[in-house]
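User: Just a sanity check before I run the rest of the batch. Below are the structure tokens for the first item. I only need the designed sequence back.
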């Protein structure tokens, strides 16, 4: 498996760092921030905000902006980062409307369009930031085109142009590696998602990066992928991790005793709480035991051995508030 020299150094440091903790200076009264959720048009709103054909959401999931805000209020969540949903694909108008209506509480992460030319993709990114108020960018590798052999990479001309622009504009990039960080678009010899992320960060170190949902990795099922994730986090200080949607990686269900505390504890030792953020993955979390309230919860974090109040404050909102709301 290919590894850069920085990752080799990081691997060595990681083997020696299990007792290390990074101190945090997060204030005790940090707001509660949900770092990862989605909204899409309710049934009565689809005339104005239609879904992308073939990507209609399940009718059982309520995900309108109004429903989100009522849920946040009920659960005492102060702010949130909305990630552009696949249901509206590159039509960002519904999320844009939410951002305009609630600028103090909501931020938006747009969906990068890798099917456009580099110039067109960057131009649209800049428009969404300047005119629509977006403050982050999602890279979904499964939207990237593949070549004649069926192989793909985010480290192509359009991916590099977008990633570079994100650094220039101080926009964090969220990687959605749904099939795991060692997945290859089309199989070998395509690079893994992790290889793509490292290549982009080495070329454009000013761009901050976020791995969604524990990197979609269960350390017991995929120990090699988990080690690689920790090595990347240690090697690149611009990397953040969302300790979000544990139902995406756990096999046991709420309260995720099989992985949540163990994986969060290792992330705390390697990167510190100031680069970790809790997130719900609303509205999908509504289908899970405990619902929304139990997943944006200090009680969930309290299960982690040795976690401090300062750590909890950072993960519950301090980190996300600084990254998304205080730019």
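Assistant: Here's the designed sequence for the first item:
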């Amino acid at each position: 498996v290919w590894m850069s020299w920085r990752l080799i150094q990081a691997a060595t440091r990681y083997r020696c760092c299990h007792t290390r903790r990074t101190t945090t200076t997060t204030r005790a009264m940090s707001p509660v921030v949900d770092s990862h959720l989605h909204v899409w048009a309710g049934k009565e709103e689809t005339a104005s905000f239609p879904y992308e054909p073939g990507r209609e959401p399940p009718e059982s999931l309520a995900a309108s902006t109004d429903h989100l805000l009522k849920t946040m209020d009920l659960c005492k969540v102060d702010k949130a980062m909305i990630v552009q949903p696949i249901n509206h694909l590159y039509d960002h108008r519904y999320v844009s409307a939410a951002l305009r209506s609630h600028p103090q509480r909501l931020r938006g992460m747009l969906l990068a369009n890798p099917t456009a030319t580099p110039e067109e993709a960057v131009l649209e990114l800049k428009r969404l930031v300047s005119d629509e108020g977006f403050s982050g960018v999602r890279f979904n590798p499964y939207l990237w085109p593949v070549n004649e052999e069926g192989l793909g990479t985010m480290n192509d001309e359009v991916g590099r142009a977008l990633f570079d622009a994100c650094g220039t504009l101080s926009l964090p990039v969220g990687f959605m590696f749904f099939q795991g960080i060692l997945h290859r678009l089309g199989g070998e010899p395509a690079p893994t998602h992790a290889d793509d992320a490292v290549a982009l960060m080495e070329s454009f170190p000013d761009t901050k990066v976020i791995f969604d949902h524990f990197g979609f990795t269960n350390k017991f099922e995929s120990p090699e992928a988990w080690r690689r994730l920790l090595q990347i986090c240690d090697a690149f200080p611009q990397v953040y991790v969302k300790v979000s949607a544990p139902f995406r990686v756990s096999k046991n269900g709420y309260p995720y005793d099989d992985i949540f505390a163990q994986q969060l504890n290792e992330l705390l030792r390697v990167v510190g709480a100031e680069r970790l953020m809790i997130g719900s993955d609303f509205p999908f979390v509504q289908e899970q035991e405990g619902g929304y309230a139990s997943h944006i919860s200090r009680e969930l974090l309290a299960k982690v051995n040795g976690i401090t109040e300062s750590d909890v404050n950072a993960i519950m909102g301090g980190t996300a508030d600084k990254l998304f709301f205080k730019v």
